[in-house]
Every structure is written in structure tokens, then in C-alpha cells.
């Protein structure tokens, strides 16, 4: 490589790293807080080095002034942050489903630290989040996310910073889909909770002398775990199908 081309190649590498680094910091499975920071940084540096030759033709030339250069770098960071935040919001569908399941199974007050959300959450939500991250690696969807990093350059050109309306549509769409999918995943427990509480009401009316509360609490928990055992495969399959559909929108 001629030495006069070296500054432009360094700028191109850091332009790719600005987007890829932001994505690796926020994407599910790859950017979890449980992953050490040096590991995430090393992964971002290696992925940037691998992706650079694939997207080199779509990158703008090295600007002559500092201000256009800074604008390009900030724009790439914003693109990576918005895509990563949207994916992170989408994965929170597992948290929504876990909260609904916990309340229907009588374990709404059982809280545990969620390492994925980095906050306290319902016990079922923490379990679903950990299973979801594990299945993303087990099914190879992390490779799809890496491919989406590369193909995002054909959808969002670095030379043209997307407007705020595009960013808003992406984030709002992720929030809406996340809540809808979370409720759909918890649908078996909504049906179970409705049937169970109607049954308790009928028993209380037919046998007023029976202490329904003391029977209902342990029975509700046991049946809740039984319903989870039966439906966990379908719940996680539904989430993985929609998560793959969300990620593939960034593929060519």
C-alpha cells in the first residue's frame, strides 16, 4: 500500500469501527454486561477489520477538514446506537412475557437480578432472558447479527446521515413489536389465569366454608410451573422466529 493511502485507510477503519463498536456494545448476546469489556472491545476491533474490505466501496473518501470528518464519525455512532437499542428493546419482549407469567403464576413478588437487563426483574423474566440469550447462540443467530452489521451499509449509507424520522420509526416499531410479542408469548398463561380464577370463584360460591386462599396459592404456583414446562418450547420458538425476522430486515 502506498504511504499516501494510509490516512484514508485508517479513517475508513475507524469509520467502520464507530458503527460496529456501537452495535457490539448494545446488541443482545454479543453486548451483554456479563461479557467483560476487553472481550467486547476486542470483538469490535476484529469485526471492524473483517467487515472493512466488504464495505470499502460504500465508504466516503477522507474529508479534507475536521468538521466533515467528525460529522461522519458521529453519524456512524448514532446509526450503531439506534440499531443496537432497537434490538435491545425487541429482546425486552422476554421481560414483558416474564412479568405477565409471574403475575399469573402467583410469583409476581419473587424478584431476582436480571444480568441481561442489569436490573431487578421477575423470576420468570430473568429465566426467559437467560434462555433467550443462550438460544441465540445455540441457533446461530449471532452470525445473522454479524451479517446484519455488514449489510446495514447497503441500507444506511455512511455518506448520508439518516433523518430523525427513520430513527424514530425504527425505535417505535421495536417498542410496539416487543410489547405485542411479549403478550403473545404469555398468552397461554393469560388463558390459564382466567380459567383458574374463574374456577376458584365458582368453588368459593359453591363451598363458602372452604378456605380457598390457602388452597389457591400453592396450587397456582404448581400449575404455573406445569404450564411453563409444557409451553416453554413454543414460547421460545415464537420469540426466536420474530427476533430473526427483526434482524433480517437489515440484510440485503
Describe the structure.
- It is a single chain.
- The protein has helices at residues 6-26, 37-55, 66-91, 93-104, 123-138, 141-155, 164-185, 187-206, 212-247; strands at 111-114, 119-122.
- The chain has 252 residues and is mainly alpha-helical.
- The protein has one domain (3-250).
- Strands 1-2 form a two-stranded antiparallel ribbon.
- Helix 8 (187-206) packs antiparallel against helix 9.
- The longest helix has 36 residues, at 212-247.
- The model has no long low-confidence stretch (mean pLDDT 84).
Summarize this, please?
The chain has 252 residues and is mainly alpha-helical. The chain contains 9 helices and 2 strands; from the N terminus they run ααααββααααα.
Number of helices: 9
Can you summarize the main beta sheet?
A: 2 strands, antiparallel
What string gives the helices and strands in order?
A: HHHHEEHHHHH
β content, as a range?
A: under 5%
Silhouette: elongated
Distance between the termini: 31 Å
Overall SS class:
mainly alpha
Order of strands across the main sheet = 1-2
- Based on DSSP secondary structure assignment, what is the total number of beta strands? 2
The domain count comes to 1
Cα Rg: 23 Å
Overall pLDDT metric? 84
Measured as a percent range, the helix fraction is over 70%
Uncertain segments of ≥5 residues (pLDDT<50)? none
